[in-house]
Design brief:
Elements (H helix, E strand, L loop, with lengths): L2 H15 L11 H8 L4 H8 L4 H11 L5
Helix pairs in contact: 1-2, 1-3, 1-4
Length: 68
């Protein structure tokens, strides 16, 4: 697995740990992958230098606050 795919998987894994106000999983694995795949490999490659997977997951949640 290359560095970009590993980073993408880490972002998805973080998204899957997020819970809503009811304590339920915020999104399905399918939705987490869909949202993460909005970012191109080139965008992630640029972002790896400046952002952690947690940062990218937070940006996704701020951009799509109701991902279900």
């Amino acid at each position: 697995m290359d560095e970009i795919q590993k980073f993408r998987k880490e972002v998805v894994d973080i998204l899957l740990t997020l819970k809503n106000k009811k304590g339920e999983q915020m999104m399905t694995e399918s939705k987490a992958n869909e949202l993460c795949n909005i970012l191109t490999d080139a965008e992630l490659a640029d972002g790896i230098l400046l952002n952690s997977p947690e940062d990218v997951a937070q940006i996704i949640i701020e951009t799509f606050p109701n991902p279900s």
